[in-house]
Here is the input.
Amino acid sequence: MTGERAVRAALWLYVLAVFAFILAPIATSFVVSFNVDRFPTLPLGGFSLRWYEDMMGDPTVLPAFRNTIIAGVTVAVISTFLGFTAAYTDYRYRFFGKSVYLALALLPPTIPVIILGLAMLIFLSRVSLFGQLHSVIIAHVVICLPFAMALIRLRLSQMDPSLEAAAWNLGAGEWRTMRGVILPFTMPAILSALFITMAVSFDEYAIAWFVSGFSETLPVRILAMLQGRVSPRINAIGSIVFTISITLVILAQVILLLRLPSRGQTDDG
Here is the structure.
């Protein structure tokens, strides 16, 4: 028993050390964003919202933030819808080439973002869709769709296959079964997919840098600011971006975990 406690304590210490290693730079940037001094110092020279005020007064930041929000919401809706249809097709039908279909559907996240961004740049330039906000939306849908598909397909795999057949036997058509059985069952995964894909779109900068043109998103604007004179406003912007992103991820996890049935409930059902 003592040995098991020692192993458990060592594992907890290891997990805490990993989280501390990952979160320490983010926490430092968040704390320094309230520093009155221009250069990061610990202890702080004084508490101030100066850099947040400067950020709000920057004429390039607010348009980039607006573009990021518009792109994130649009990408989340489109990716989740397409992800649901792709996941349901995989769940419901058997057809020739299904393995190839799944491989292609889940391929984009495995491609290096630089290569994918360059490919999207070439393709969108050829079809005259380059350099606008919709260019970012199209490119981000490509990268976000597999996340939505994976989440929803995981949820569908937990559904009793006989539920659809039972609904059909009771007189429900395919669309009514979709509205009354499939959608309610997959709703936790659908909501989680919305938040996850929005977070991915909100944070992504490499592909957006290739295709956005003058319609910069916030991560692209941060990259442009880093290429010039380093400003403490970057810490303020980064803190806001991190807060929004982590909130979306936490919401996705909470919704998915709270709405998933326990094993005991599933067996009883």
In short: The domain at 59-268 is CATH 1.10.3720.10 (MetI-like fold). The chain has twelve helices and no strands. The mean pLDDT is 81.
